[in-house]
Amino acid sequence: GMPLPVHGDGSNVRSYLYCEDVAEAFEVILHKGGVGHVYNIGTHKERKVLDVAKDICRLFSSNPDEVIKFVDNRPFNDQRYFLDHQKLKNLGWSERTSWEEGLRKTMDWYVSNPDWWGDVSGALVPHPRMLMIPGDTSARINGNGYSDSPAHQTNSSQMVVQESSKISAPPPKKPTLKFLIYGRTGWIGGLLGKLCEKEGIPYEYGRGRLEDRSQLLADIRTVRPTHVFNAAGATGRPNVDWCETHKTETIRTNVVGTLTLADVCKEHGILLINYATGCIFEYDKAHPIGSGIGFKEEDKANFTGSFYSKTKAMVEELLRDYDNVCTLRIRMPISSDLSNPRNFITKISRYNKVVNIPNSMTILDELLPISIEMAKRNLKGIWNFTNPGVVSHNEILEMYREYIDPNFKWINFTVEEQAKVIVAPRSNNELDATKLKEEFPEMLPIKESLIKYVFEPNRKTPKF
Ligand SMILES: NC(=O)c1ccc[n+]([C@@H]2O[C@H](COP(=O)([O-])OP(=O)(O)OC[C@H]3O[C@@H](n4cnc5c(N)ncnc54)[C@H](OP(=O)(O)O)[C@@H]3O)[C@@H](O)[C@H]2O)c1
């Protein structure tokens, strides 16, 4: 029942954009934008403030002539802002929501979520902050917080004071996140902590060993997490061949430990994001090499050639029955840190000889933030956690030569020759990333992701 104040005569023009379109723009820029670039987010459709006020009246079935009250203009109120957003459009973003639809959805949301914002009546106070204009200190305001002077009589030398009762209550706090992460000393666990710091998400590393239920319970009691991330696992040093000779240690962490953590989380109703592996598959007749037919989430493991993969395959199968677990099948992870010995690129660029087989791979710089987003969306079940498509060893090393070292050379050998220098066979496969791509349409195909997240930022060769 309060009047709708309009500053000045309402002829000021603005470009209004629906919030979901803005959020989509952020997402597109996050995933496709250039580092250090600036993007305007806007619309070419401009609207006068007065027309907006009339449209709002129409939505509330009230008469604009009765409800709209012209009040003193704000000092320095810009007549028009207009941003050219062509650069953002070039990234593939476009406005999707019409003005009418966006306004209606916004109104519906406010009307059906009164608890979220608290008292919004403060928005109808025409001059919500104290404005001190040098030269005059007189306060001219009526009991409703409206200036008595009509717009055309605007006196720019005045002080307008908001009534304290009209200050809107702060919005209720959103439920906050608190992550508990296992794998502090590990590669992926370390990266996750840094990401949480970057995103301002409170987190703590778990102190317990995975196989010790009482230690995990103590972690949950002290940290009180909203989500648990498991980046702990027996991975072997210098490589997974270690697991062949340390079977009980491997079982203790990868099987007993992972299942215990999932079970403790289940008991406490907490989602567990589990960094698992896609190295539980190998190309077969139904998924031949180079066919583009990848293994799907519902497929059962067909590669247990190494003890490491065997433990991971068994656990994945058992975790299917835990509805609080999100299993992420990582493969041959790559990060932009080319000095890290765990990085697949670092590994193959240091080998004396390499095989040349197309594989699905995970670009951590792109996908680890996605795993955090998956936690926020409370996604569960099994996910092939690789970029779409495959890339071969030689294709990666060719990129390495192009971007990092023009003199780089390597020697290929066959899988049979490779078998002579390793203990356990390695898995080669393509995972079908359709499910992940549908949830995160902005995710890049593997080769584009490699260039954007790894090779371009590390480029040492001149750009032609
Ligand atoms: N890197 C890859 O190629 C790759 C590929 C696919 C999947 N993954 C999976 O992703 C996960 C993380 O991999 P990563 O490369 O980051 O491994 P990583 O560098 O070897 O780190 C493993 C982490 O697990 C911890 N850990 C081991 N046993 C534990 C136990 N019983 N209780 C608690 N913590 C334990 C280690 O801590 P301590 O040092 O204290 O033991 C370390 O922090 C693993 O499950 C791995 O299998 C990795």
TrEMBL record:
Domain RmlD-like substrate binding: 178-348
Annotated pathway: Carbohydrate biosynthesis
GO process terms (BP): S-adenosylmethionine biosynthetic process; UDP-rhamnose biosynthetic process
Domain NAD(P)-binding: 5-106
InterPro entries tied to this protein: dTDP_dehydrorham_reduct, NAD(P)-bd_dom, NAD(P)-bd_dom_sf, RmlD-like-bd
GO (cellular component) term, any one: methionine adenosyltransferase complex
Domain of life: Eukaryota
A Pfam family annotated for this UniProt entry: GDP_Man_Dehyd
The entry's keywords: Isomerase, Oxidoreductase
GO molecular function, one term: oxidoreductase activity
UniProt-recorded name of the protein: Uncharacterized protein
